[in-house]
Amino acid sequence: SRKELLAGKRVLVTAGGTMERLDPVRYLTNDSSGKMGFAIAEAARMMGAEVTVIKGRTSVAAPAGVRVIQVESAEQMLEQATALYSNCDIVVKAAAVADYRPVVVADQKIKKKGDRLLLELERTTDILETLGERKEHQFLIGFAAETDQVERYAMDKLRRKNCDWIVANDVSAEGAGFDGDTNILSVYGPDGLIEALPLMSKRSAAARLMELAAVASRGGEPE
Ligand code: PMT
């Protein structure tokens, strides 16, 4: 039954947005609420998995019955994800991770001076790519938040980051993407589109995604 689809499996989910500090009271972040990642964590738990969520900044509560690890920056999320990776069967990277962080994190609050302030940013390490490089037995699922040419960029990410699947959402579409309770997901594998889900609640989308992942991670065909 559905309740046992992921029995005995260890699932790692990242959720929410990272926070990249500028100074003790300011940071760069994004609109991720954590809803998508939490819905995935909850769906996996309901299917019998042992679930760990690494969460950044979120605006809703984490589901019950899952282990929660709180982080702030992309760097901290990377550390936790790589530490837990070897013990995971399925990894879902639904977090919105900063691509850039401030080069300098000021010890004190940055003072106002002059009309302009130039902020220098540097690339963060790509967590998904790092996990892709170290992939052994894990079934690795990345997300792709796109605004155009969704399929092309999703397939490009899948290959570049050595994922098993990429779940794309067109974050410019009405009812999809950041913060809301609904999403429009398309699941891509190495041979292209596996399933395009219509607009639905993040909970329902997460349940379908994990149902597909449970079967595929055992080497089966989706039904
Ligand atoms: O949290 P919600 O409000 O419910 O919103 C859900 C969501 C829109 C955040 C979610 O559905 C989503 O699309 N998450 C991925 C957002 C994102 O960062 O996409 P991306 O295309 O920039 O990154 C692609 C993948 O690489 C993602 O799996 C991301 O976690 C990963 N990444 C990106 C940068 C980085 N430094 N490390 C990463 O691992």
Automatic annotation (TrEMBL):
Phosphopantothenate--cysteine ligase: annotated segments: 11-223
The keyword Transcription is assigned to this record: no
Pathway this chain belongs to: Cofactor biosynthesis; coenzyme A biosynthesis; CoA from (R)-pantothenate: step 2/5; Cofactor biosynthesis; coenzyme A biosynthesis; CoA from (R)-pantothenate: step 3/5
Catalytic activity: (R)-4'-phosphopantothenate + L-cysteine + CTP = N-[(R)-4-phosphopantothenoyl]-L-cysteine + CMP + diphosphate + H(+); N-[(R)-4-phosphopantothenoyl]-L-cysteine + H(+) = (R)-4'-phosphopantetheine + CO2
Residue ranges of every copy of the DNA/pantothenate metabolism flavoprotein C-terminal domain listed in the record: 6-212
Residue positions binding CTP: D99, K109, F143, K157, K161
Keyword tags: Decarboxylase, Flavoprotein, FMN, Ligase, Lyase, Magnesium, Metal-binding, Multifunctional enzyme
EC numbers for this chain: 4.1.1.36, 6.3.2.5
Cofactor(s) this protein requires: Mg(2+); FMN
Co-factor: note: Binds 1 FMN per subunit.
Entry GO MF terms: phosphopantothenate--cysteine ligase activity; phosphopantothenoylcysteine decarboxylase activity
Family statement: In the C-terminal section; belongs to the PPC synthetase family.
Protein function: Catalyzes two sequential steps in the biosynthesis of coenzyme A. In the first step cysteine is conjugated to 4'-phosphopantothenate to form 4-phosphopantothenoylcysteine. In the second step the latter compound is decarboxylated to form 4'-phosphopantotheine. Catalyzes two steps in the biosynthesis of coenzyme A. In the first step cysteine is conjugated to 4'-phosphopantothenate to form 4-phosphopantothenoylcysteine, in the latter compound is decarboxylated to form 4'-phosphopantotheine.
Protein name as catalogued: Coenzyme A biosynthesis bifunctional protein CoaBC
Organism: Paenibacillus chungangensis
Gene field: coaBC
Parent sequence residues shown: 179 to 401 of 401
